[in-house]
Amino acid sequence: MKSFYIKAAVICFLSGMLIIKLGIPHEALLCLFVWAVFIFRKIPKFYIVSAVCLVFLLAGAYRQIFSAPQTGPGLVHFYQDQQVVLRGTIDDNPDRRKDKVNYLIEINEIFLENGWRNTNGKILVSFDLYPEFFYGDFVEISGLLIKPANFEKFSYENYLSIKDVYSVMYSPKMILKGQNYGFVFFNIMFKIKNSFEYQINAVLPEPQSSFAAGLLTGSRKGIPDDIMEDFNTTGLTHIIAISGYNISLIIFFVSSLFGRASKQVKIPAIIIFIILFTLFVGASPAVTRASIMGIISVMAMWFGRQSAVLNALLISAFLMVLINPPTLFYDVGFQLSFCATLGLIIMGDRIKKVLFFLPEVFGIKEGTVMTLSAQIFALPVILLNFERFSIISPLANILISPFIPLSMLFGFISAILSYLDLSLGFIFSFPALFTLKFIVEIISLLAKIPYASLQIEGFSIYHFAGYYLIFILFAYFININSRNRLAGIRSNDTDRLPSAYLKRI
Q: Which of 203, 313, 331, 337 has CB 3.0 to 4.6 Å from 429, enough for a Cys bridge?
């Protein structure tokens, strides 16, 4: 029953936020409430459950209401559409691209007619590649402060709101005023990450070096557009961004490293490595989210109970959304990670039984199960946000899965050894270079297959809701039929079953 309370509370909290966001009419809510009372009136402690649901429904609604961005002279976005002079600290590792650098800056001061005044808020600054600035630098910037522009099928404004950013500035004048104003810990971690990426570039040629950096640190700055398009077509962009896929590889590496060690040793070790990796690549919201989902998957290994792991997933989602409400609606990475992890929890074992004929070697079976489980649950999110579905994705995952760990392993070793001796790094880079080239060639060939990726337009929020509703009803009836079959076995065929099997049911 405690598990039911957790599920009900989280679902109602998220529903409360959704109700306010969509502006659902009160009449529709009343009908929904009457329908829920009729359906669930016979459950144990119905009135207690109703009270819990009502409290969390209202909590979600009010959290959404109060998450709306505020404005006023004390906030930097109050001065949009004006030429301004600002001072602030670079608050994240700079996002370096091929032709520009994006800086996330925490603003402290603004210059007005009567001098410098305190103000708060974050802005995103798009600047030239040089001169370079770094995390923790205190800078003075002057330029036109504007609202983020929206594109035809992408709301840049909503995307930046996830980071609490509501203003941008393009090609401003930027002057360094001080250094090391950030947290010492993150300053050290970002320097290590940047140094590591530099060593990868030193031992591997392009585009393999950018591909390796994408696998190991999530950086995409040097990957050519045609290769990125091939990744999109084959549904494999998740391997060049720090996501649940990368975390699952860490779990695989550490699990193999500890071999036959007990769960009490292996699982804490996996969690420690996940945390260290998260800190190493910068602990951005996307990486932190993927790490949390990975730790939840590890908990599934520990507890071996679907309900406990599902509760952990729901509580994690609740905390993430409570802290940062725009995550629920605008963070596609969060939506995909949540749905993919949910798919693994609910569908993983069932799909593994169906695919019993696949070999275990090179992780082919495990990789296929993970891909299908995740895609079944994440499909509506993909169609709603990208209007594209990759038919070739399962096959692409199966073909490249054995080579990704090898590329990461040799890429990592060669970069580390290059600190000691660059020629030694070159020697160990050859296996990484071979596997990286092979992966790119395979992806390029698969992307050329006719209808490898389908463009699906017009997928709406109603299709989104209908997909999951049908899935829930299907799972519900399957569960009911399974229980009925077990009940029939218990009542009619107990004399023909082994005692060991009877104990399990």
A: 203
